[in-house]
């Protein structure tokens, strides 16, 4: 498959670059190590340098490195060419158009965000509404309980007040009766005192007939005292005997 070849070429190129970098690093480390060892063995290197100069060695190493690098870069260029060719063969305008069509449009994003916000607001609104309803129900139930308690207390107080009113009316009636009795007693006492003030006692008043005491009394008062009285002036008259 073309896409599989493209993937293989990419992997191969990356591996080649990594191997190249690893070879260069190993060479640098080796040169540093050789340079340090050369200081310790200066006698041996001096004799060898007589036969072979340093410039010859450097030229030889540069030649080897250039050959290796040239070979590596040729391989990389070849891989890049294959990748470029694979891209030309596989990526078409229709593929790009289809990929763009699959991307989410700005309007779609706005619609999605709007829907999410609406759902969140709806959920939050319902939660707040439920909490408010629960709180209102709780307060309403509490108030109804308090109202029922107040009604019961009011009924009890009304009954007690009615009993107190009955008792108060009874006390008022008793007081009124007492006052009336006191007034009546006072008037009776006054009348008794008044009647006693106007009582007349006559000793040795003799009459021929006890049934006509009023007439004999009026005649006697008129004759002896020269005082004329009418029958209506005498309320009552009777005899009493002294033993």
From TrEMBL:
Region (Disordered) residue ranges read: 17-71
Q: Where is the composition biased (Basic and acidic residues)?
A: 20-62
Record-given protein name: Uncharacterized protein
Q: Which organism is it from?
A: Mytilus coruscus (Sea mussel)
């Amino acid at each position: 498959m073309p896409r599989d070849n493209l993937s293989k070429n990419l992997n191969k190129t990356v591996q080649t670059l990594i191997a190249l970098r690893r070879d260069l690093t190993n060479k640098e480390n080796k040169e540093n190590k050789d340079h340090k060892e050369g200081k310790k063995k200066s006698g041996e290197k001096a004799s060898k340098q007589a036969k072979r100069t340093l410039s010859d060695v450097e030229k030889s190493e540069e030649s080897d490195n250039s050959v290796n690098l040239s070979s590596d870069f040729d391989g990389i260029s070849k891989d890049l060419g294959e990748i470029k060719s694979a891209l030309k063969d596989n990526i078409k305008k229709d593929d790009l158009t289809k990929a763009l069509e699959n991307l989410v449009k700005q309007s779609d994003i706005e619609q999605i965000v709007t829907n999410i916000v609406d759902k969140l607001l709806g959920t939050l609104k319902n939660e707040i509404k439920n909490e408010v309803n629960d709180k209102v129900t709780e307060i309403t139930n509490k108030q109804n309980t308090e109202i029922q308690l107040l009604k019961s207390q009011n009924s009890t107080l009304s009954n007690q007040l009615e009993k107190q009113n009955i008792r108060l009316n009874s006390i008022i009636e008793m007081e009124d009766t007492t006052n009336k009795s006191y007034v009546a007693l006072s008037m009776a006492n006054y009348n008794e005192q008044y009647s006693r003030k106007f009582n007349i006692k006559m000793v040795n008043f003799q009459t021929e007939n006890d049934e006509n005491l009023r007439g004999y009394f009026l005649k006697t008062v008129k004759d002896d005292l020269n005082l004329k009285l009418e029958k209506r002036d005498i309320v009552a008259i009777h005899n009493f005997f002294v033993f």
